[in-house]
Amino acid sequence: MTKLLDKAFEKASKLPELEQNAIARWLIDEIVSEKKWEKSFAESEDILDKLAEKALLEYAEGKTKPFDASQL
What we know:
Elements: H1 3-12, H2 17-60
């Protein structure tokens, strides 16, 4: 465990039980959410590669138009 995380847990341990539980739930939820995002991005890497290849091919074939911000 890092010193900073250890310090955070030390400070949290001095809070009332209800607040400790709220912090614990938040931290667990954040960790679970981060793992889900990591998995989603890892699984989408092949799809993103294929989309990028398709976009580059369409550009090379002249099938794309330049972006015109004035049309926004």
